[in-house]
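ARCHIVE CARD
Drawer: 12
Card no.: 0347
Subject: one protein chain, sequence and derived structure
Cross-reference: see card 0346
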Amino acid sequence: MSHASRDANLLGACALAVSSRLSTGAADTALVALHGWLDGTTIDGLARVLSLTHSGAVRLVDRMERDGVVARRSGPDGRSVAVHLTARGHEAGETLRRERERMLLEVLGPLDGGERAALTAALEKLLGGMTTDRAGARRICRLCDADVCGHPDHCPVTRAAHH
């Protein structure tokens, strides 16, 4: 096995291990995104970020509305429907964001400061390279804490999407 393929294999294994720890369904992902930066988006906007069909996003919003975490309001053009978090939704989104942060910090625990700095630089380069457009950027960042990332000026995904 070549060094390059071993790197790719290790990256894949790490991505799967982290992903399984994050295992959030569409409703949890929607709560984190709406809490962080997507509040007030249209149902179509939510569908694009979550890679759902329009009807799938409508069903998701129906469930979330029944759970009391979102409310529908008129969208920006009068024809669309905007999705806004309720107070209960903000609380749930913040809880999920904190839990995600705790888990990711736990994953980073074995690394010292220098290793974390090197990983951060590598991740910035990888994320910038994987960002092809603004819609893709929104999907990549659907679980991000934009404040921690330094959005918009220091976020490698946002910077790549605007170039």
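Annotation on reverse: Residues 126 and 147 are 20 Å apart (CA to CA). Residues 112-163 form one domain.
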